[in-house]
Amino acid sequence: MPRAPQTLDAEAVRSWCAGALAALGREREEIDAINVYPIADGDTGTNLYLTLEAAARAVDETFAGRSGAAPDVAEVIRAMAHGALLGARGNSGTILSQLLRGTASVLADGRDGDHLARALASAAEAARQAVAHPVEGTLLTVADAAAGACAGGGELVTVATAAYEGARAALERTPGQLDVLRRAGVVDAGGRGLVAVLGALVESLTGETPVRPAEPAHRPVLATAEDCAGGTAGPAYEVIYLLEAEDAAVERLRARLDDLGESLVVVGGDGLWNVHVHVDDAGAAVEAGVEAGRPHRIRITHFEVRGEPAGRAVVAVLPGEGLAGLCAEAGATTLLARPGEPPSGAELTEAIRRAHAREVVLLPNDGDLRQVAAAAAEQVRAEGIRVALIPTRAAVQGIAALAVHEPDRRFDEDVVAMTAAAGATRYAELAVAERQSFTSAGVCQAGDVLGLIEGDVAVIGQDLTDTARTVLDRMLSAGGELVTLVVAADTPESLAATLESHVRATYLAVDTTTYHAGEGAPPLLIGVE
Hints:
The protein is an alpha/beta fold. It folds into four domains: 10-228, Alpha Horseshoe (Serine Threonine Protein Phosphatase 5, Tetratricopeptide repeat), CATH 1.25.40.340; 235-308, Alpha-Beta Plaits; 311-424, Phosphotransferase system, mannose-type IIA component (Rossmann fold), CATH 3.40.50.510; 426-528, Hypothetical Protein Tm841, Chain: A,domain 3 (2-Layer Sandwich). It contains 19 helices and 16 strands. It has helices at residues 10-33, 44-63, 73-87, 90-107, 113-130, 139-149, 156-173, 179-184, 189-206, 225-228, 247-260, 282-292, 321-329, 345-354, 370-381, 395-403, 411-423, 464-476, 494-506, and strands spanning 237-244, 261-269, 272-279, 294-302, 310-318, 333-336, 357-363, 386-389, 426-432, 437-439, 442-444, 449-453, 456-461, 482-488, 511-518, 524-528. The strands form four sheets. It has a six-stranded mixed beta sheet, sandwiched between helices. A four-stranded antiparallel beta sheet has the order 2-3-1-4, sandwiched between helices. It starts with 9 loop residues before the first helix and ends with a strand.
């Protein structure tokens, strides 16, 4: 019989991470099904899986390109924690990322059983400090129990096994600690996920699958919004973003977000943080992040608290944080398209799922995303979700479609109306050339302002305002009733006002609407309906 390992090495950490991802993949649907706290939105298993997927991807990257020699174990452990921080999803995923960060801070200095015991204690403490208002009967309680069960240290396998058994026992007690769990007849979903992660650690060290938590004897009776919020409806939005900020600014941000909403979790350190909060005013939560530092990878989800799925939802891909917030407030589930980083098929699929609706209208708002969006739609159709893909090629077309969306209308009628509105919207974009190149309007030089109409370069200029005015005139020469201007955060404030004045003076029957896209969007988007 092979001797049990006494220390964690790089391969063991990699095996643990891969095993945890596989375990959450197997149990994702079961965990989603018992998700009733803090919001009964049925996505805790999915969020934990996506968080671990980001961690596993980061771990694999530390092994890539090496010829035989394994990476340093401390590097692998830090990569696992950092990947989870970048990819953290939802309340439980954000807390899990902090657990991994707390574990990594100790295991980087030693990988034996005593260090593992101290690492789990550090992780539990760090996770509890990251949550603004800790609640017992949750993932935090299970993490505390895991740390307490192995507090004496010992051999590596002994510590890992004791932690797992302590977590499993604590999980079974959660319905007695939290009324919403007792009423639904379930254990805590986040705690169930942590047990799966610790079980994968035991399996990676022993090669044996530990005893799984007991299954509920009956189908869970899922909580309503009133159950979860003690008789009142909870906040309308979940807001998550990465934030580059100093410690002092983050402390001020915690206080600000705590006043705005609930389920506040802020994790991270060393200048990079993951912020999660449930609020009614999604824009204010993002603005608080802007005041604290530089927020990015912003995700705003409009809650549809679960009993049965919502009737219909709109999922929109959008450039710029402000535009995403605007559409989220209009009821859409949004996905931010970062410059040079279009969303993947997996991200689109996950966005459709978290909309939690029987019928979904998908607005990719980018011609290059059409095939990826079609594949994502096809994947979720196999899960019983009815999806209509409207091939919007620009954000202004998506805005036009969302403006006529009526969820009470028949699905087909709604899709036809949204498609017609998008199709009736011509679009243009201003960009700055990065290098000399040949275009359909001639040769441009680095720094030139490019005016693209329907995706093709139509105007090359040196001044942003002059080029924008020329583009707008060309578009309105074919007629139009409404001009939509979408300006980025770094676009001069005078541009929109100048263009609005030009339209009023030159085209008497044309109205103008201006939106602010925030950071990450092209300098100017123009739509003409």
